[in-house]
TrEMBL record:
InterPro entries cross-referenced by the UniProt entry: LRR_5, LRR_dom_sf, Surface_bspA-like
SUPFAM superfamilies found in the cross-reference section: L domain-like
Lineage start: Bacteria, Pseudomonadati, Bacteroidota, Bacteroidia, Bacteroidales
Membrane-spanning intervals of the chain: none
Protein name listed in UniProt: Leucine rich repeat-containing protein
Length: 500
């Protein structure tokens, strides 16, 4: 089957300078021959290996061998780990061989190795990070040494299988599904850009969270007619080539919308024999039978007059969604239902709805009883009668560069403004409380100003890691509290923050 794949059996000469400091590793890396070696923090006599980016690469060699031992100048280096992102964009290797003795491969270790076709894992491998072969579209062959006590590649399935529970830990476009396989693990096919069509056999019982995330070229999913299958959260997240989905008559359970960030998905068809789910009238939403919960929508979905609840993540990442009309029948809208809908510019609620409103044409969904915004938009005008902003309400929205939270807002809940990358400066009134992670991941937020006499943050001691709203705000430079400007780095609160 793979006889046309040319693999040259020569050791790839590769050296990269280790410019990234990996969490939990010591920083005193050394260049040894072809590689950069970093001592393990828990055992300095063992090393993590990565590429030396300053080396001249021999593009004539197409095999990369990861050694478990290197001798240099009378010293022997024992290597047990491949560093996260350690061998990124090795675009001309076709075969990867990992030596006996290597125990761990870090996340995204071989990201972007676009011509990689074959991988061999040793019997010593016991731990694999996430998305190891992200964006390796030509990968077709995965083999695990038969002596490995943790993993196997049974029946030449071209996957790494967890032997203990018969779960695929790592797959590729060439993976098959032996009958002994019962589940597909979290992120197993993450970034598998060579996968175009996927057929799930009836013996697969569980597909975990993000199992097929960022399979950008995936166009077709075929499920078994008589299967029993449970889907995790965001199973097909970011599969942007997927335009339609057919749900047959088997027994299927969706924890949440499996199609988050599938921005081109536009239609659902469901077998009339399916006892649990149906498509809406326009065939562009997936709805549960009995309780009328909208589990998954599209950019062109019309929320029908029979929908009682919009489930968490139902429209998450629908970048092409521009308009939402909430009918009178909707009784509950879960947090995160519309997060990441960056082009949403028109929101309205039927005036007869007893639970939600869009008062004063605010382009928000407001929970009427609590006066809390549960969903906003990039053009929202926050009414004075609103007193709080709910979880994920503006998540991923295009916020203005300078955002002054209105004085009437008393509380901003967790992740309310997560990933609002347009935000540059934030001004917080005296009466406003920001909950933990409320501005998580606002990558271009550079300054925060607390107005004098803020009830919750009066001095720098009041802002601790356990209540920081600004985790992963990597550009944040200063926070002003009661008129005192303090460099953000002094707080030590910001995972992912980089001092400039």
């Amino acid at each position: 089957m793979y006889s046309n794949i040319f693999i040259q059996r020569s050791v790839f000469s590769l050296i990269l300078f280790c410019v990234v400091s990996f969490a939990g590793y010591a920083d005193d890396g050394v260049i040894v021959g072809q590689f950069c070696l970093t001592p393990c923090s828990d055992n300095p006599s063992e090393y993590i290996i990565s590429m030396n980016k300053e080396a001249v690469m021999d593009k004539g060699n197409e095999t990369l061998r990861i050694p478990s031992e290197i001798k240099d100048k009378g010293k022997t280096y024992k290597i047990v780990q491949v560093a996260p992102k350690g061998f990124v964009n090795c675009c001309f290797i076709k075969e990867l061989v990992i030596d006996e003795g290597i125990e761990t491969v870090g996340g995204m270790a071989f990201y972007g190795c676009s011509d990689l076709r074959s991988v061999s894992f040793p019997s010593s491998i016991s731990s694999l990070g996430e998305c190891i072969f992200y964006n390796c579209p030509e990968l077709q062959i995965i083999e695990v040494n038969k002596g490995n006590p943790v993993f196997d590649s049974r029946e030449q399935c071209n996957a790494v299988v967890r032997t203990s529970d018969d779960a695929i830990e790592l797959g590729c476009a060439g993976t098959t599904f032996p009958q002994s396989i019962s589940q597909i693990s979290k992120g197993a096919f993450c970034g598998c850009t060579g996968l175009i069509s996927l057929s799930i056999p009836k013996w697969i019982e569980v597909i975990e969270d993000y199992a097929f995330s960022d399979c950008f070229r995936l166009e077709k999913i075929v499920l078994p007619e008589d299967g029993t299958l449970q889907f995790g959260q965001s199973t097909f997240d970011g599969c942007c080539s997927l335009t339609s989905f057919n749900l047959p008559a088997g027994e299927f359970y969706f924890f949440q919308n499996p199609f988050t960030n599938c921005e081109n998905l536009s239609s659902f068809t469901v077998s009339p024999k399916n006892k649990d789910y149906r498509a809406n009238k326009e065939k562009n939403a997936l709805v549960s039978i009995g309780d009328s919960v909208l589990f998954a929508g599209c950019y062109n979905t019309t929320i029908g007059n029979d929908i009682k609840r919009i489930y968490a993540s139902a429209f998450k990442g629908c970048r092409r969604l521009t308009k939402v009309i909430i009918p009178a029948c909707v009784e509950k809208i879960d947090a995160d239902a519309f997060s990441g809908c960056v082009n949403l510019v028109s929101i309205s609620v039927d005036k007869d709805n007893k639970f939600y409103d869009s008062r004063e044409d605010c382009n928000c969904i407001v929970e009427s009883q609590s006066n809390k915004i549960v969903c906003g938009s990039s053009v929202a005008v926050i009414p004075k009668s609103v007193n709080s902003i709910g979880k994920f309400a503006f998540c991923g929205m295009n916020m203005p560069a300078v955002f002054h939270i209105p004085d009437n807002i008393l509380k901003v809940e967790e992740f309310a403004f997560r990933g609002c990358n347009g935000l540059n400066q934030l001004i917080i009134p005296a009466n406003t409380e920001l909950k933990y992670n409320s501005f998580y991941g606002c990558a271009y937020l550079t300054s925060v100003i607390y107005e004098p006499q803020n009830k919750y943050i009066k001095t720098r001691k009041d802002l601790t890691f356990m209540n920081s709203p600004y985790i992963s705000c990597k550009s944040l430079m200063s926070i002003s509290i009661s008129g005192e400007n303090v460099p953000a780095i002094e707080y030590g609160l910001f995972v992912g923050h980089k001092e400039k």
